[in-house]
């Protein structure tokens, strides 16, 4: 009997330890990379110092700084980016449950590209996906982090978030009150530095840009409509 009890305690200890191991975020392939190159880096930054539930001390890092908590190299082929699994320590069961990660992509030229800011990681399930982390953190962001998702996941998440009253409903309500301006057909002049532009790319998600030039640079040859999100003087002859 003693032996059976000891074995049971040993298994219980293993189960307790397992809840504190790294969470496996599954790899994926996205068709939304628009920045060329053969590889890209995903770097993970942590907002605050934490002690994990298995007693590891993790130091905070600054997004865009010279140090980060984890880095993964992803492969690029045209507009497809493929990233493998990555293991991250859960934050919600740490010494600071409000601590968050930020994941940022960098291209071959070390330029910041897509990002997924300020998300928490629950200890369970121990195998998850970026799409599930988006769902879990849906109140912490205003645009879908599309480079972290497949196109199928983007479509699925839009439905989920619309039902939850988050991104899609907010964006649709906002655009009802704004004048639409399609840069591919309308004639107008707007300064490249004018701000307040939204892109409803393929009607799948809303992306905000700080200026017209930033929108054009990001969208490149992609056909899309822009929405003016503030009062802007528009005159004849489009100039971009």
Structural features, described:
- This protein is 23% helix and 25% strand.
- The strands form 4 sheets. It has a 6-stranded antiparallel beta sheet with strand order 2-7-6-3-9-10, covered by helices on one side. A 4-stranded antiparallel beta sheet has the order 12-15-13-14.
- The chain has helices spanning 2-18, 130-136, 151-163, 167-176, 212-219, and strands spanning 23-25, 28-30, 39-46, 50-51, 57-58, 70-77, 80-83, 86-88, 101-106, 112-119, 127-128, 180-181, 197-199, 207-209, 226-228.
- The relative contact order is 0.13.
- The chain starts with a helix and ends in a 12-residue tail after the last strand.
- With 240 residues, it is an alpha+beta fold.
- The protein contains 5 helices and 15 strands.
């Amino acid at each position: 009997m003693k032996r059976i009890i000891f074995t049971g305690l040993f298994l219980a200890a293993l189960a307790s330890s397992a809840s504190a191991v790294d969470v496996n975020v599954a790899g994926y392939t996205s068709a939304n990379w628009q920045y060329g190159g053969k590889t890209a880096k995903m770097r993970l930054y942590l907002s605050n110092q934490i002690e994990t539930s298995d007693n590891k001390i993790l130091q905070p890092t600054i997004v865009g700084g010279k140090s980060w908590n984890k880095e993964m190299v992803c492969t690029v082929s045209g507009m497809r980016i493929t990233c493998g699994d990555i293991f991250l320590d859960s934050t919600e069961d740490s010494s600071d449950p409000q601590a968050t990660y930020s994941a940022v992509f960098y291209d071959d030229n070390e330029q910041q590209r897509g990002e997924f800011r300020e998300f928490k990681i629950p200890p369970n399930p121990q195998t998850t996906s970026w799409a599930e982390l988006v769902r879990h953190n849906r109140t912490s962001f205003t645009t879908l982090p599309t480079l972290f998702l497949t196109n199928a996941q983007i479509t699925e998440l839009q439905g989920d978030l619309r039902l939850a009253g988050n991104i899609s409903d907010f964006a649709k309500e906002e655009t009802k009150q704004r004048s639409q301006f399609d840069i591919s057909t309308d004639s107008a002049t707007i300064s490249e530095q004018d701000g307040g532009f939204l892109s409803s790319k393929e009607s799948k998600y809303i992306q905000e840009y700080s200026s017209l030039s930033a929108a054009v640079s990001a969208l490149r040859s992609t056909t899309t409509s822009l929405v003016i999100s503030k009062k802007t003087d528009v005159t004849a002859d489009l100039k971009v």
